[in-house]
C-alpha cells in the first residue's frame, strides 16, 4: 500500500507542486481544495501524469468541511500518514499596521490560524495510528524590510507559536504525531503577484525542499525548519530547545 498525504490548498502553487512531486514518488494524494472546479481540474492534471489522486473538499473558512473530510478519510484512507497545512490567505499585503482593516486581519487569522488549528485537532487522531506527521507551511516569525505584510505576518507568527506548543504537548503526552513548520523561502506564486527576483525561488525548487523534509527520517518535533542559502536546509529551532 502506498503512503497517503492530505495537502490543503493543493489545486495550485506550491501545494500543487508538492502533490505532483510526492505523487511521482508513488504517494497517494488527497488534494484539498475549497473550489470543486479548480480541485477537479488539478486532479485531472495530476492523473495525466500518472499520479493517484482524489479531490477532498476543504474550506478553512467553513470548519464543518474539515470535519466531513476527516470522517471520510478516517473511513476510506485510514492509512493517512502526512497532513500538509498549505492553504492560507495573504490578506492585504500592502497595508501598514495602522492602515489594516480589522475585518481583513480577522479574515486572515480565521483561515491561517483558526482553520489550521481545526485541521490539526481533527486529524491528529487519524495520524497517530501510523505515527504520522503534520507539516505547517509558514514564514519566519519576524518580518523584514523587504517583506512585512501585517495581517499575514501576524497570522504566521501565531501559527509558529501554535506549532511549538502542539509539539511540546505531543511530546509530553506521548502522542505519536510529529508536527513542525517549514519555511521554504520566498516562492514565486500568485500569493505575491508572481514576484521574481534573485531572492525568490521557483515553485519546483521550494516544493522539492518540502518534499525532502516530508520524506526524511529526522525528528523536527515543534520546530520550524528554515532554508538559508542555496539549496541547503538548516534547522532553526524556535522552540527554546
Task: Explain what this protein looks like in three dimensions.
- The chain is of the alpha/beta class and 241 residues long.
- It has a single domain, classed as 3-Layer(aba) Sandwich (Rossmann fold), CATH 3.40.50.
- Helices cover 41% and strands 17% of the residues.
- The protein contains six helices and eight strands; from the N terminus they run βαβαβαβαβαβαββ.
- It has helices spanning 13-23, 36-48, 63-76, 102-127, 150-172, 203-215, and strands spanning 4-7, 28-33, 53-57, 80-85, 133-137, 178-183, 224-227, 233-236.
- An eight-stranded mixed sheet has the order 3-2-1-4-5-6-7-8, sandwiched between helices.
- α1 crosses α6 (203-215), α3 (63-76) packs parallel to α4 (102-127) and α4 (102-127) packs parallel to α5.
- The longest helix is centred in the middle third of the chain and has 26 residues, at 102-127.
- It is globular.
- Mean pLDDT is 88; it is low at 228-241.
CATH fold-level topology: Rossmann fold
Structure class = alpha/beta
Biggest sheet strand line-up: 3-2-1-4-5-6-7-8
Biggest sheet overview: 8 strands, mixed
Order of helices and strands: EHEHEHEHEHEHEE
Average pLDDT figure: 88
CATH architecture: 3-Layer(aba) Sandwich
Going by CATH, what is the homologous superfamily? NAD(P)-binding Rossmann-like Domain
User: Based on DSSP secondary structure assignment, what is the total number of beta strands?
Assistant: 8
Name the beta content range.
15-25%
The level-1 CATH class: Alpha Beta
Separation, N- and C-terminal Cα atoms: 36 Å
Global shape: globular
Percentage of helical residues? 40-55%
- For this structure, the quaternary state is single chain
